[in-house]
Amino acid sequence: MKIKLGVGLAGALVLVGALVDGGAGELTGVSLASVSVSVSASAPAPRTPVPSGPGKVRCPKPTAVVGSVSQLRKALASARPGAVIQLRPGVYQGEFAAQKSGTRAKPIFLCGTAASVLDGGGIKKGYGFHLDNVSYWRLVGFTVRNSQKGVMADRTRNSIIQGLSVHEIGDEAIHLRVFSTGNIVQYSKIYNTGLRRAQFGEGVYLGSAESNWGRYTGGKMDRSDRNLVRGNVIRARAEAVDIKEGTRGGRIVGNIFDGSVLGGHKFNDSWIDVKGNDYVIENNSGRRTPQDGFQTHEIVDGWGTGNVFRGNRIDLAGGRGVGINDTVGGNTITCDNKVTGGPLLKKGACS
């Protein structure tokens, strides 16, 4: 048996999960003096509610209901198009992966509530959930916590990550990389990232840095294109959304950014870094930043341009910079972007 304790709001130890015989279970007849205890004292979740909006998916009637780690692993391994896996409330400790694809007509669902918790067992290694070379998955409603990376998608297409709570993460919370295209990350709450290293604590990460192309994409640009990030609440230690060079044509829409813990590294100074091309960044709102609200950067020649910023609400709340710092040029910044606490632009004019 493994016991996991957390810290309550008053500083008292509280039981947040126990595994019995490889599954989520109840704690009975065990002395706390006889077990190994892991304690986390991270900040509570943001109080900001997740926005409502279009495009939500609903979980169909389940084809499998699971309540233990072994049952979950079996259901994932045997999933076929049309499968709907329902997680009972409980803590499922381990790393989990999807390796079978659904279809457009019959996607595969993994559904739960915030009380259905995938716990990676520690922030120094592993993925809480890995979408590994799959298409047409729907991850809906559950919690991912206590892993180095929260949800990782590699070579994943046409999948939806919706309504998750992703927190207590060593590095980034949700990462779409290695040619992952046409996916949606929406209506989730992301916080307490970067607990291993703040500089890697992004909320949502699209693509791969040029320095990692040799490792992950055979030296090619990581064309993780046309992904949508919509309606999420993100309080991250690094950028809320990091858009990497080589990615194109995505949309960042209607998100709420809390920059109150942003920092810990000289580059963690805006809610969004845009290094890709042809993105639309619209109707987002953010408050508090050490420097700027949004930034563009040219890491690879010809990238970080052709992007559109419109309808965003920016409260610098003491930040030293500007609402949108377009260091590249060739981007469209409309005059309906509204800034409190500083100017909209460092140079040039809105359109």
Any idea what the radius of gyration is? 20 Å
Q: Which residue ranges are poorly predicted, with pLDDT under 50 across at least 5 consecutive positions?
A: 1-41
The average pLDDT value, as a whole number, equals 90
CATH topology category name of the domain at 62-268: Pectate Lyase C-like
Q: Given the C-alpha coordinates, what overall shape results?
A: globular
CATH uppermost class of the domain at 62-268? Mainly Beta
The proportion of strand residues reads: 25-35%
Biggest beta sheet summary: 11 strands, parallel
Distance between the termini: 61 Å
What does this protein look like?
The protein is mostly beta strands and 351 residues long. The chain has a domain at 62-268: Single-stranded right-handed beta-helix, Pectin lyase-like (Pectate Lyase C-like, 3 Solenoid), CATH 2.160.20.10. The chain is 4% helix and 34% strand. The protein has two helices and 33 strands. The strands form four sheets. The chain has an eleven-stranded parallel beta sheet with strand order 4-5-8-11-14-17-20-23-26-29-32, with helices on one face. Strands 6-9-12-15-18-21-24-27-30-33 form a ten-stranded parallel beta sheet, with no helix packed on it. A hairpin with a 5-residue loop joins strand 1 and strand 2 (13-20). The radius of gyration is 20 Å and the shape is globular. The termini are far apart. Mean pLDDT is 90; it is low at 1-41.
